[in-house]
Design a protein that fits this description.
Length: 132
């Protein structure tokens, strides 16, 4: 899909992120993603370790497909499921943006605390007395 303008892009990104995070909210789907990170597998192979039907695992795969996390190539019933790692870049970029902001806040707090300690020479003595 070609994004025509910035407004359309802004509207699509949160929707895609919501789908990715909703798909990964389920522990079974997270496990399926972890297993697919090792290599492609058929739905039957993915269903084998679970005490659920192949149809139930197929439903999980469908949710992962709708989120863009996996794809199935070909037309055979035994077609393998493939992990699409590019979608993780979107989620990673979103998480990284907020991780950086949090890190910047912690650095500012460290600077304030350091400045407070520089202005209060007795702070080091009080701190040494409590560290045992």
């Amino acid at each position: 899909m070609v994004i025509v303008n910035r407004l359309v892009e802004v509207m699509l990104v949160p929707d895609q992120l919501s789908k990715v995070f909703a798909a990964l909210a389920d522990p079974t789907r997270r496990d399926l993603v972890a297993r697919l990170a090792v290599g492609d597998a058929t739905v039957g192979q993915l269903a084998a370790p679970y005490d659920v039907s192949v149809q139930a695992v197929s439903k999980h795969i469908k949710v992962l497909q709708d989120a863009g996390l996996v794809r199935r190539d070909g037309t055979s019933h035994r077609r393998p499921v493939h992990l699409d790692a590019e979608v993780f870049d979107l989620a990673t970029a979103w998480i990284e943006r907020y991780r950086r902001r949090a890190e910047e806040r912690y650095q500012r707090l460290d600077a304030v605390l350091a400045a407070m300690n520089e202005n209060d020479p007795e702070a080091d003595e009080r701190h040494e007395g409590t560290a045992s």
